[in-house]
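Protocol check, entry for the methods section draft. Step 1: assemble the input record (protein sequence plus ligand SMILES). Step 2: submit for complex structure prediction. Step 3: store the structure tokens unaltered in the notebook. Ligand used here: LL5AMS7Z. Step 1 record:
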Amino acid sequence: MKPKVYITRRVPDEIIVKIEKEFDIRIWDETDVPVPREVLEKEIVDVDGLFCLITETVDRELLEKAPQLKVVSNMAVGYNNIDIKAAKEKGITVTNTPGVLTETTADLTFALLMATARRLIESSDYLREGSWKTWSPMQLTGQDIYGATIGIIGMGRIGAALAKRAKGFDMNVLYHNRSRKLSLEKDLNMKFVELDSLLKESDFVCIMTPYTPETIDLISARELSLMKKTSILINTARGGIVNEEDLYHALKRGEIWAAGLDVFEQEPISLDHPLLTLPNVVTVPHIGSASIKTRMKMAELAAENLLLALKNQTPKHVVV
Ligand SMILES: NC(=O)C1=CN([C@@H]2O[C@H](COP(=O)(O)OP(=O)(O)OC[C@H]3O[C@@H](n4cnc5c(N)ncnc54)[C@H](O)[C@@H]3O)[C@@H](O)[C@H]2O)C=CC1
Ligand SMILES: O=CC(=O)O
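Step 3, stored output:
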């Protein structure tokens, strides 16, 4: 009998075919609707492998319902949706998809930085709604990017890729991380600073840490109050790292100049969320890794991790 696998979303056909060759699969056959929790709870009961997305909460309660489960393969680098401690206790392997999305996510982060600094979305709306009557000296003016100081919190794979892009714009790069990255500091001529100094000195603050107990609300009222009035906050890491209520007040009071957000505490963000009422907030729907090539690579890697784990071989990227 083949091992059983549950796939929590319709992924491209070639990925499904690959998994289907080896395993008995069942799938939540939707592209834009996540599997309801009650369905997942039923489906997980007899499976050996789970192929899931960041939209699924794989907590202890769910894992308790899966006595046969050997592997949870997350199609993402971030795995804050999975209870790693519970998985480890149960001897369940958890895998993720680092690396293949690094450059694409750094591209989006820099694009969001540029769109926010130069008010691209607001300017596009201004033109289309017929407000553009003339060229005017201070019309839709934004913040300069070249030569500005960028502070990157979390100097991992994506943080480093972002720093390289910043260097291309002659930016001064500061970073804060759990540990120093001495060779990167030398290669990219960037400086390690404590978090408060980074917040005080940067024109752009970009968050690139994982979402962990230590990074919940890492940027709250106190941190925002340290930032320059002309500064811009960019978050493409995870929503809960920035306290959204505090961010709203800081933007409303002019304590910081603008924010570019790809990630939110609740996803999708509710359309009546106060942040969506502010013109100086650029929002996109968690599209950091969303290029066709990169999403294919992520799905392929997640499938490969799953296959290797179920064949008792070492997956390419093991979290636990
Ligand atoms: N918006 C999107 O679509 C995407 C978002 N992400 C997010 O980006 C995160 C980073 O991804 P990678 O760069 O591949 O991970 P990584 O593990 O290579 O880098 C994370 C860095 O953050 C540092 N860090 C962790 N906790 C910290 C703390 N409390 N203070 C300072 N630094 C801390 C680590 O030391 C590490 O250097 C992911 O965990 C995920 O949440 C990743 C891909 C796409
Ligand atoms: O948010 C996406 C990820 O890969 O993590």
